[in-house]
Amino acid sequence: MLVHPSVALATLLWMAAQVLYLRLIRWSTGQKEMDEAFSAGCLTQIVGVLFQALALGLLLLWTLPVLLGLEPRASWAAVEGFAMLATRAGLIAALAIALLSFLPWLGNFLGGSPGLEVLVGGGILFRLLSHPYLEARLGRKIPAESLYPGLWESLGYLALAFLAGRLLMLATLKLRPAAGQPPNAFTRLWGPSLDTLVGIVVLYLYAQSVALRLHPGP
């Protein structure tokens, strides 16, 4: 799925937006005094979750027909009518991630793994977008339980993203600063961006499982 031209292009645009956003955050926090750091960090986190959710909603909306196996290539004309739905879904996903971040253990877990945060938010977005889109596109009611992975299968995707993120961390260990050293450019910029890519790829696998249920083989 990732090698499909439309999906690959959307993923590259997502990564570019992610890197640009992290650069802007790094620049803006570098301009502030130390006594403003905490409040700036909280505001940055809130804005970051909202930006990520809306950008992810746009990515999923554009690639939705391809991810579901309904179109050979992405087309804005095919999904234009669902733009407001994507915006509302993005706001709901951002709110859900923000609320989860307040839970003591789970919040730390998601905050330490951008890929998992993207997967959870993306899963919410995909569910909110794909079901109305499919029912409108196919002209019939579709029971959600027959289309989407159940609880245990969904937990399997979360475990896959977690393990892939840890493997990525081990593979890039030499690029990270030693213990006690200040964060470098990799840990501030490229590391989180690559981690979100892990979440995106696992999200595509989740979408592929839905497409397989939608188009069962003989």
Summarize the structure.
This protein is mostly helical and 218 residues long. 75% of the residues lie in helices and 0% in strands. The chain is built from 8 helices and no strands.
Features:
218 residues; mainly alpha
Structure, explained:
By secondary structure, this protein is mostly helical. The protein has one domain (5-214). It is built from 8 helices and no strands. It is globular, with a radius of gyration of 18 Å.
- The figure for the number of domains is 1
Summing up helix and strand content along with how strands pair, one would put the structural category as: mainly alpha
Helix-strand topology string? HHHHHHHH
**Unreliable runs:** 31-40
Mean pLDDT: 82
Task: Determine the fraction of residues in helical runs and give it as a percent range.
Answer: over 70%
Number of strands: 0
Distance between the termini: 21 Å
The best one-word shape is: globular
Radius of gyration: 18 Å
Bin the strand percentage: under 5%
Number of helices: 8
Please give the largest β-sheet.
none
